[in-house]
Amino acid sequence: xxxxxxxxxxxxxxxxxxxxxxxxxxxxxxxxxxxxxxxxxxxxxxxxxxxxxxxxxxxxxxxxxxxxxxxxxxxxxxxxxxxxxxxxxxxxxxxxxxxxxxxxxxxxxxxxxxxxxxxxxxxxxxxxxxxxxxxxxxxxxxxxxxxxxxxxxxxxxxxxxxxxxxxxxxxxxxxxxxxxxxxxxxxxxxxxxxxxxxxxxxxxxxxxxxxxxxxxxxxxxxxxxxxxxxxxxxxxxxxxxxxxxxxxxxxxxxxxxxxxxxxxxxxxxxxxxxxxxxxxxxxxxxxxxxxxxxxxxxxxxxxxxxxxxxxxxxxxxxxxxxxxxxxxxxxxxxxxxxxxxxxxxxxxxxxxxxxxxxxxxxxxxxx
Length: 367
Description:
Helix content is 45%, strand content 17%. The chain is of the alpha/beta class. It folds into 2 domains: 2-24 and 258-359, no CATH class; 40-254, Alpha-Beta Complex (Spore Coat Polysaccharide Biosynthesis Protein SpsA, Chain A), CATH 3.90.550.10. The strands form 3 sheets. Strands 5-4-2-6-9-8-10-7 form an 8-stranded mixed beta sheet, sandwiched between helices.
């Protein structure tokens, strides 16, 4: 009896995931660009872009902003770039380039750049935009309308990550899928205080809410700055919202397993609060959820339970594949992506134990 109950755990886990009310696998929280909404008055918004060695993409990012509407002001903080980032940015209209100061002790680079740029924002709303994010024409108008219609003070959109290789297709939609499992959008968007999440690449926020939440100085050392900021804004009494969008396009080329590994490993152990106990718990959870169903298939007594778990697992991934217009057969490889992400999390922990808290943009943050 106990053996059968243990064997049923993976099936119960995956079926439970499909039927929980907040539906973390769903793609219902979304905002898409409206190509006809390119004449909106955006004079109440200042775009704040931290940029460090982004000469290859900053032009596309700024061009995307030009196609959003009228009156939009842009502040680019050149974070000690050694390339032509500042020169290229300065050629775009309504764009002010700020020369960033050297990184002080105890600050993360992106947050220090945003802190310097904040002093140059004098509009009611601020759009925090990564330098490698291109907005499709007519994206800001529906985003602004949603913010006003839902009476939200903080709205953000998860970027559509480029998929140009086998590794991209295997791992990047799964990255968004796992993020939604950890931070269910429905719970984050509700009044539930214990779940707060954001996608830092594209955040439209009331400037006053930023100030009252203590951004950016109060989270100056945060490596997962987007979710930390959302939590502080929510704790300050404001309403947040997070969704998906194909109109927020990441220009960052990954393409290789190594590049995706570096992106994940820089903050995976941070997500676990540098806890070895949580790392072991996550490992056990992955083995139970992704590994045990395959073992159950080998037994005449439990193969049905294994099959139910695997079918439910893959069904939970199908909405994400449909949203990103990928072949549904990629669901068969979800256990492979889980194994790779678990390995990246261990790699992140090993880096930390060796004294490297994170490494990004030619900067190393020690433990």
